[in-house]
């Protein structure tokens, strides 16, 4: 009975141990070791089931050894106890492994997020063929953006394939050096260029314990451009600073020179670096303290710009010094900037100008021509003595008055205004303007004026200047000469030139009003006999008397001209019909049948007249005169003292 119980317990313990072993297989995943233990325990349990069966059925042929079974039971219990004790340990290990695996996954996620959030580009490489090439293992988002290529396109590929210019760039050699030595290296800012990208890169290269190479880099193209721009601006600023011909310096609040331009250094025959740090008054004035009314001191005290003119004896030069305070971003006074301009030439010009102005005033008072200045509206602002003398006004009476006060009429006022207007628009002077001027006493005379535009220092139009000369006497002579040029000197009748002018005017009127014109060629019958027998003086007096009788017989609108010797031409304007011209010719013949009394001589002179009509006998004066001459000869051939028509 005891043996049976021991066998049963032993079998139960061994089966329990086998079940526990199977559970450990599931928990630990160590299938081989625990599987062998489980099989061994099951076999041991099966081996004991057979004796147990025989004992149960009462078979006495198999009698188990109680002592051995007790030992087996004890061993089974120890194995079960060991499995029971080991199971929690293995479960704890398994749980730790799960937690470690989860933590590792979390770390990888965090690393990936950190890797992709890094602002710098990061590339991880694996060395192949003993460092002869490097294969991309990883590539973060910043690197994708910098190099314009996706991670999937580079991972697993050679760096030489993705960046074919890396050897010329110099970075490949650095990769090899870092991989062989394990020492981190900085690759200074350098421009990388291939057929795909171009830009400035700043690289740091490291070696990982896993023998992988890590390159951390930044695209500094914009910074490089900005740096180059700043350098160029600084260079341009310095060039501009040095190109200023004036003496320019920057001084601190202690009068020390901080910066000077080339002109400043050249003036004092020193290098810029030799001047920096020295006090300005030591350099400029050769003194140990600042001068009285120093513009630098005044600008520091008032914090306002100061401009002064000073004479610097050591330079023998007049200077215009402009001094402006300099403040930092916090509004604190840092010093001043000085600009000293050499104004010696200007001072000399001012003296010359003052002398010239005095002479100008003297000349204005002494010249015989009138000089006047007016504003844009035409009101006088300045007149000289000659103008007052010519016009009969005092200066006080003219200043402020409009120029129309000295013009003789509306036409003359309009002529002066038109000249002013043209000068104002074009800016060009107007020479030789002739108009009739009116004096204070009401008398008139002719003035020839030269007018120009007056401007201020900025070139703005402020008025007009005019120089006028009294040309009344000259104008009278011109009128006389013009009369002589247009009239016969003996009779005072119009000559051929004036006849042509009046014919052109009459022709225009006749064409406009659809009227006729008449031209009559008139010749004195037997005038040559009188001239030869009584002399030229008597002949001239007769011609004068003939001219008077002809003039008295005609209308004021008609023109009688002497064209030579005893030849006269009569122009009749706007003749209604041919008979009108015939009537005039008959009237003239009748008038001239009365004798002339010349120097006690009774002279009977008749006329021969040839008539031509426009447009019947010609369209111009030449053709009409030719036609009237032809008719004149016809009248003479018929016995004189008569008229004839061309047709």
How would you summarize this macromolecular structure in one to three sentences?
The chain is of the alpha+beta class and 647 residues long.
What does this structure look like?
The chain has 647 residues and is an alpha+beta fold. Helix content is 50%, strand content 25%. The protein is elongated, with a radius of gyration of 66 Å. The N and C termini lie far apart (192 Å).
Structural key phrases:
alpha+beta; 647 residues; five-stranded antiparallel sheet; single chain; 50% helix
- State the oligomer: single chain
Could you say which structural class the secondary elements and strand pairing correspond to?
Answer: alpha+beta
Alpha plus pi helix count:
23
If strands are numbered along the chain, what order do they take across the biggest sheet? 2-1-5-4-3
Tally of extended strands? 22
Question: What proportion strand?
Answer: 25-35%
Q: Which residues form runs of ≥5 with pLDDT under 50?
A: none
Percent helix range:
40-55%
- The shape is elongated
Separation, N- and C-terminal Cα atoms: 192 Å
Largest sheet: 5 strands, antiparallel
Radius of gyration based on Cα positions: 66 Å
- The averaged pLDDT comes out at 83
């Amino acid at each position: 009975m005891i043996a049976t119980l021991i066998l049963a317990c032993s079998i139960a313990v061994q089966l329990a141990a086998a079940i526990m072993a199977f559970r450990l297989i599931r928990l630990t995943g160590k299938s081989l070791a625990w599987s062998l233990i489980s099989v061994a325990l099951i076999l041991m349990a099966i081996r004991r089931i057979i004796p147990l069966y025989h004992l149960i059925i009462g078979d006495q042929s198999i009698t188990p050894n109680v002592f051995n079974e007790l030992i087996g039971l004890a061993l089974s219990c120890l194995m079960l106890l060991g499995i029971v004790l080991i199971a929690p340990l293995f479960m704890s290990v398994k749980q730790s492994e799960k937690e470690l695996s989860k933590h590792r996954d979390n770390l990888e996620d965090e690393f990936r997020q950190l890797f992709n959030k890094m602002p710098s580009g990061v590339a991880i490489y694996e060395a192949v063929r003993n460092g002869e090439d490097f294969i991309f293992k990883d590539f973060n988002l910043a690197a994708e953006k910098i190099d314009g290529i996706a991670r999937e396109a580079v991972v697993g590929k050679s760096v030489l394939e993705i960046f074919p210019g890396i050897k010329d760039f110099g970075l490949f050699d650095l990769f090899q050096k870092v991989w062989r030595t394990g020492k981190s290296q900085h690759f200074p800012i350098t421009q990388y260029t291939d057929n795909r990208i171009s830009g400035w890169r700043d690289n740091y290269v490291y070696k990982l314990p896993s023998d992988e190479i890590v390159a951390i880099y930044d695209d500094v193209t914009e910074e490089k451009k900005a740096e180059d721009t700043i350098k160029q601006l600084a260079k341009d600023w310095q060039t501009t600073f040095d190109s200023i011909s004036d003496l320019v310096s920057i001084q601190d609040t202690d009068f020390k020179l901080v910066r000077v331009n080339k002109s400043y250094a050249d003036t004092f025959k020193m290098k810029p670096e030799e001047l920096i740090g020295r006090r300005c008054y030591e350099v400029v004035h050769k003194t140990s303290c600042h001068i009285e009314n120093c513009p630098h001191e005044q600008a520091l005290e008032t914090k306002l710009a100061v401009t002064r003119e000073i004479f610097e004896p050591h330079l023998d030069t007049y200077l215009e010094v402009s001094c402006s305070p300099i403040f930092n971003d916090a509004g604190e006074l840092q010093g001043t900037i000085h600009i000293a301009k050499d104004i010696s030439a200007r001072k000399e010009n001012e003296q010359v100008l003052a002398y010239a102005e005095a002479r100008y005033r003297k000349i204005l008072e002494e010249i015989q021509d009138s000089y006047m200045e007016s504003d844009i509206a035409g009101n006088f602002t300045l007149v000289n003595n000659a103008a007052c003398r010519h016009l009969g006004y005092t200066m006080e009476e003219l200043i402020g008055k409009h120029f129309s006060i000295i013009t003789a009429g509306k036409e003359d006022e309009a002529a002066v205004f038109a000249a002013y207007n043209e000068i104002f628009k074009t800016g060009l002077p107007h020479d030789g303007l002739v108009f009739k001027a009116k004096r204070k006493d009401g008398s008139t005379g002719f003035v020839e004026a030269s007018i120009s535009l007056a401007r201020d220092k900025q070139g703005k139009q402020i008025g007009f200047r005019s120089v006028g000369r009294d040309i009344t006497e000259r104008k009278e002579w011109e009128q006389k000469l013009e009369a002589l040029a247009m009239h016969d000197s003996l009779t005072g009748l119009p000559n051929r030139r004036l006849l042509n002018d009046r014919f052109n005017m009459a022709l225009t009127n006749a064409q406009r009003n659809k009227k006729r014109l008449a031209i009559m060629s008139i010749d004195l019958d037997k005038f040559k006999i009188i001239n030869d027998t009584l002399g030229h003086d008597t002949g001239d007096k007769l011609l004068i008397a003939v001219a008077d009788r002809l003039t008295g017989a005609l209308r004021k609108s008609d023109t009688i001209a002497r064209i030579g010797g005893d030849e006269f031409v009569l122009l009749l304007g706007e003749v209604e019909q041919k008979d009108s011209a015939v009537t005039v010719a008959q009237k003239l013949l009748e008038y001239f049948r009365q004798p002339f009394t010349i120097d006690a001589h009774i002279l009977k002179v008749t006329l021969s007249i040839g008539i031509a009509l426009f447009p019947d006998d010609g369209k111009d004066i030449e053709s009409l005169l030719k036609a009237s001459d032809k008719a004149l000869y016809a009248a003479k051939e018929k016995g004189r003292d008569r008229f004839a028509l061309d047709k």
